[in-house]
UniProtKB/TrEMBL annotation:
It is a multi-pass membrane protein. It is found in: Cell membrane. GO terms for cellular component: plasma membrane. This is Sugar ABC transporter permease. Belongs to the binding-protein-dependent transport system permease family. InterPro entries: MetI-like, MetI-like_sf, UgpAE/MalFG_permease. It holds the Pfam family BPD_transp_1. It comes from Simiaoa sunii. The chain crosses the membrane at residues 29-47, 94-114, 126-146, 183-207, 228-247, 287-308. Residues 86-308 form the ABC transmembrane type-1 domain. PANTHER family: BLL4140 PROTEIN.
Length: 321
């Protein structure tokens, strides 16, 4: 007969801990329900990780894989296109994170200040809707708006306002290295700001009304209440959102893939799109090289998660993993 291990609860009471096998048997229904999910996770998430070994092989569509050691990593670090994609990934992701977070804070504050409940709910619904549109649809919409042809809305307005001559060639915003990044940030603001306001509005709803009443007694104006009551209350949430999203900066793909083209690779190509091109856009791809790039990206992402976890413990008192 197995002995039951004694444990002490937070109230100081000693209870006997049942053996693991008995606990599994007693909760067998829950484990059976979890089994399909567990098998799905193993097959879809962990089984493909065995392919990491090909980062150390020459693996092409024809011929058997041959072991090459760290050759692909040496080649990767010597390739200018890789470093350009790496820099673009960090710059685009971090700038997008800062801009969308700042915009979401401003929008949530103004939504919170709206007194008309119907107008507030209507506006919230309108700014939430773009988040549910796929990036392919968003890219199609903005490609039409920004088209350099006569049907392009933006170029048409520039001609009507006299900024462009009536017979002048339109600006191809999505094929210009000077315009692509600003347009990319604007599109991300339009699509993601509404969704980002949800967590900030929830924080604002939890602010103690007595703080605003005390500010009224002191004669504070609305702007002063926003500055000295609302923003300090949001500060911890802003820091938390920045920390949690910083861990995902290496995962940018779809938003860039549907908007970029070969004319703007120098300012738009990111690690994920670089891997995609190395795998699918050349006649005889070396899957070993693209696997090595993907492994490097995962390692950088892991380091960022650990850094964010440490920063989260320092600011929130608990980690994210």
């Amino acid at each position: 007969m197995s002995k039951k291990k004694k444990i002490t609860t937070s109230t100081g009471v000693e209870v006997r801990h049942k053996p693991l096998g008995l606990r599994i048997w007693n909760n067998r229904g829950y484990y059976l329900m979890f089994l399909p999910v567990f098998v799905f996770i193993l097959i879809m998430y962990y089984w493909p990780m065995l392919g990491i070994r090909y980062a150390f092989y020459d693996y092409k569509p024809v011929g058997a894989p041959t072991f090459v050691g760290l050759k692909h990593f040496y080649s990767m670090f010597k390739t200018d296109a890789f470093w350009s994609a790496f820099r673009n990934t960090l710059e685009l992701s971090i700038m997008k994170l800062l801009i969308t977070t700042f915009t979401a804070v401003i929008v949530s504050i103004f939504l919170n200040e709206m007194g008309n409940l119907f107008a507030k709910k209507t506006l919230q619904t309108i700014i939430y809707l773009p988040h549910f549109m796929s990036w392919a649809v968003v890219a199609s919409i903005f490609s039409l708006f920004l088209s350099p042809s006569s049907t392009g809305l933006v170029n048409g307005l520039l001609r009507d306002w006299g900024i462009l001559a009536p017979d002048a060639k339109g600006i191809y915003f999505l094929a210009s290295t000077a315009w692509w990044r600003p347009i990319f940030y604007i599109i991300n603001i339009w699509k993601e700001t509404g969704w980002g306001t949800i967590i900030f509005l929830a924080t604002l709803a939890g602010i103690n009304p007595e703080l605003y009443e005390a500010a009224d007694i002191d004669g504070a104006t609305r702007m002063q209440k926003m500055r000295f009551v609302t923003l300090p209350a949001l500060s911890n949430t802003i820091i938390t959102v920045l920390i949690l999203n910083l861990a995902k900066v290496m995962n940018m793909f779809e938003s860039v893939f549907v908007l970029y083209n070969n004319a703007v690779y120098s300012v738009s190509d990111v690690i994920s799109t670089y891997i995609y091109r190395q795998t699918f856009a050349i006649a005889l791809p070396n899957y070993g090289y693209s696997t090595a790039v993907g492994l490097f990206k995962s390692l950088v992402g892991c380091v960022l998660v650990l850094i964010c976890n440490w920063a989260s413990k320092k600011t929130r008192g608990r980690g994210i993993v």
